[in-house]
Amino acid sequence: MVDALIPNRGDVIDTGYFATSSHWVDPSVLNEDYFAGVVSVSFSVFDPFTPPEDQPDANAGMRYHYVGLKKRVVHQNQEHWVLKDKNGLCQDLIKSLKLCLALTAKRNRWVNAVIKLESDFNFAEMDLCRLTNIYDSDSSDNKSQFSNTAKNLFDRMSSGHAIVLLTLTKLVETVEEKTLVLLDEPESHLHPPLLSAFTRALSELLVNRNGVAIIATHSPVVLQEVPKSCVSILRRTRLVLNVDPPENETFAENVGILTREVFGLEVSKSGFHDLLVRSVDEGKSYEEIEQEYQSQLGFEGKAILRSMIMIRDTQAGAEE
């Protein structure tokens, strides 16, 4: 998607393009100034994407920023990409924090984002908002006391909390009006409550800046935070890709229901579903199967098991 927006990243046949979508008129290519900037976020070590060089100058064209693990290194006139270590990510955070806290508007947006994250107990205990006071009281030119405090906090964080704080801080720094944020699988390092808090904080930041995001996710927790009008389900069969809207509302829906709707066929062929199918196919009764699992089936498992047995017995009766 980045290649479709940034100039000189390849032929349109290879990169694709962004277009309008309407039931009433044919799709048309978006104007070059439709988005003022792009921010791509990915912390996957397996991501094959090679990000362009950051381009922060609006006068030079489309602004672009990359937030992630990759770092460009030039050695003997050869360009290489390496992965940042934790210290490198910490330096990214400190630099971004200084830029955010130096400007009143960005400082306020950062504080609001952190307050949203404090629905997570660990973030609440960190009391990150105190960093604003430490920044203001640090009279040194390089804000050394502030930097040391931020580093100590970052070093004690789990990988998930560290990535969330770094990502949101970088987004507060880089997201301006009409910015498109591309976010790849934010659930990779986050437990569900923290993922939910992050999604809500991101949503409010984008509303404040009149920006939008495209999030690639396998998590129903992300779907819980957005209405179905903002969700598209992508299903690939070999080289054929289908895009469908959800049938039911996604915002504030039950995670189990969202999982079944979005991943339906895959879920029914994996995990405990597959184990129950095997037991039912062996012709066992409900009581026998429950005893087999030592009465440790949850409510949903019991309901699914009863349904499977009913379908099996109905089909058997029809064949006789």
Low-confidence stretches: none
Biggest sheet character? 4 strands, parallel
Order of SSEs:
HHEEEEHHHHHHEHEHEEHHHH
Strand residue content: 5-15%
The dominant shape is: globular
User: Helix segment count?
Assistant: 14
Number of domains: 2
Average of pLDDT: 89
Which percent bin holds the helix content? 40-55%
Structural class: alpha/beta
List the helices and strands and how they pair.
Blueprint: H1 2-5, H2 12-15, E1 37-42, E2 63-68, E3 70-75, E4 78-83, H3 86-101, H4 104-117, H5 121-126, H6 130-137, H7 144-156, H8 159-174, E5 179-184, H9 192-209, E6 212-216, H10 220-224, E7 233-237, E8 240-244, H11 255-268, H12 271-281, H13 286-292, H14 299-319
Parallel strand pairs: 1-2, 1-5, 5-6
Antiparallel strand pairs: 3-4, 7-8
Helix pairs in contact: 3-7, 3-8, 4-8, 4-9, 8-9, 12-14
